[in-house]
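Backbones bend. Shown next:

***
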Amino acid sequence: MKSDNRPLSPHLQIYRWQWTMAYSILHRITGVALGVGTLLFTCWLLALADGPDSFAAIQGFIGSFIGRLLLFGWTFALFYHLANGIRHLGWDMGFGFDLKTAGITGHGAVVAATALTILCWVVGYAAL
């Protein structure tokens, strides 16, 4: 039975772009990035268990510019996912649903993630 009068689900082209939409998409992207980064971390651990040759190969990649860029991105993903998860906990308790507060807390999650990422890398390099 086909009906031409059925309502269509809204598509992205219908919605007006908002910060809260961008932060929701970023939260999903960082979740995927954490999964992929965990695979890289697992490869590093397996290489460590396999022996010095395997470990030197993976350590060489991680120590390269691209490897460090991936680690930096993974660190940002970790801190953004954490900050946005705390924001969602507030929502679960019924706080921050109005558009202004949602925008402010979204911006705050990005700022917190950026600051924590930079702080983590500064402390990490200072410990060398």
